[in-house]
Amino acid sequence: MHNKPELNDLSVFCEVARRGSFIATANERGVSPAYVSKRIHILETQLGVRLFHRTTRRVHISNEGERVYRAALKVLEDVDAMTEAVASARNEPSGLLRISTSLRLGRSHVSYVLSGLQQRYPKLDVWLELVDRRVNLIEEGFDIDIRVGEPVNPHLIAHRIADSSRVLCASPAYLARCGMPATPDDLTQHECLAFRDREQAFGVWRLQGPDGLHTVKVTGRFGSNHSDIVRIWGLQGHGILLLSVWDVAAHLRDGSLVQVLPDYVECADVWAMTCSRSTTSAKVGACIEYMKQELTQGAYALDTALHVPRPRR
């Protein structure tokens, strides 16, 4: 092999391997699919192996490609760590920062915070991906995943960003029609609007109250993985919903939603999850500290000012 692979080609290859698509990779990078195909072809020629099996719909990584993928990730991580080490010595965050989070949190809050972060650190490049699933930080190449709810990954490092809780609420019209539940067990007799967040079990509400934990299996005719949709259905009187207080605070204040069982909440703190390799990263550290400040005190802070009882820990 006379020519060594270029770092950019390794990066393109890893993106294709993650997405299983030349077109999706091209769209993310702002290049043509032909360019992506050309770089993969050059890499295959240099390495002397077929990295992907092509079909009309997708590309599938080969056995040789799997081995190259693992090695390429290590090379790219080492280069990134070297860049970070130099930047950290200058205390100057730089390079590409890849962040994932949920749809509502990302669109309404995190996106604005990251805009301010990049203005503070102009040498940062930012990629924000909004997903309705839990990501694999290492395999998918993310630096930070912003999550709502208790951290459950022992191999990741959890950084608390903001304290919050999910609260029960419903429209006045629904409560006038169906009555106000008096205990958590009464929820089983009501129409409940199921919301599946990335960290929530679908249709199971774990409520902390003065008498401890209540796990309630709820049912209803409406459910979604998007909090905006669940909130709309709640406002239209279709049932009781359980959403983060910052997601419904304005409606609770103007009376379009009414809190139900106010002594019972579900813990929904906001966390930044990182890998151990990111502990010394200047860009990751700067992002987490800025996120803590802006999501609790900044212009796009989470609205948690309602008096909501904190779950016992």
Automatic annotation (TrEMBL):
SUPFAM superfamilies recorded: Periplasmic binding protein-like II (SSF53850), Winged helix' DNA-binding domain (SSF46785)
Protein name (Swiss-Prot/TrEMBL): LysR family transcriptional activator of dmlA
Similarity remark: Belongs to the LysR transcriptional regulatory family.
InterPro entries reported for this sequence: LysR-type_TF_proteobact-type, LysR_HTH_N, LysR_subst-bd, WH-like_DNA-bd_sf, WH_DNA-bd_sf
An individual GO BP term: DNA-templated transcription
Superkingdom, taxonomy of origin: Bacteria
Record's keyword terms, sorted: DNA-binding, Transcription, Transcription regulation
Gene Ontology molecular-function annotations: DNA-binding transcription factor activity; sequence-specific DNA binding
Domain HTH lysR-type as annotated: residue spans: 5-62
Keyword Transcription regulation assigned: yes
